[in-house]
Amino acid sequence: MIRSLLFSLCLIALSALGGCGTPVVQVAGMGMTGYDTATMADKYLPKERIDFNCPANREDAVLERRMDERLLIKGYPELQPYSFDRHVYLVGEVTDRDNAAHATEIACTVKGVDRLTTHFFPASEHSDPARDLSLTRELAKRYQQSATLKNAAIRARVIQSTALVMGLTPDPQVKKLALSTARSLPGVTSVVDYVTIAP
What keywords appear on the UniProt entry (predicted)? Predict the structure, then answer.
């Protein structure tokens, strides 16, 4: 009797303390505070990974986020997914064919992907990711400044000075303008067209 009374008192004391402690978030089987979770997110998904070429709809944004997280966890931070109506373009640098094949397998496991198109570049000592990111941001800025391209579902990524222009548009003139804008950007040496004319 005394034992069960002590047990009950301990439970009451613990439940009373529960409201006063640090909030805890359950993350992958580990108890973490909200601060720990935010710190981990900053480490593995730093602000410089944020793509200012935003997806056209929420479903594509969620799909990209899922794939990006899965690729980061599996050790592919250099790859970036872009989704348009569940057709995902996975682009970036890879070290070799096995690396590319493994990344493709991982991407195919993400729920919601209807089609996957990959465009990988062999990693090179001459690569300049900071320069490519700067060119990508400049191209996104030019798209946002264009009245025609501002609301178009077209995005671009520059890798090894090659602009990959991706998206959907019902208007061939929008596609033409997006490609010519990419070609005119100083520092871009070639342009790959992944823009689909869709009704």
Answer: Signal
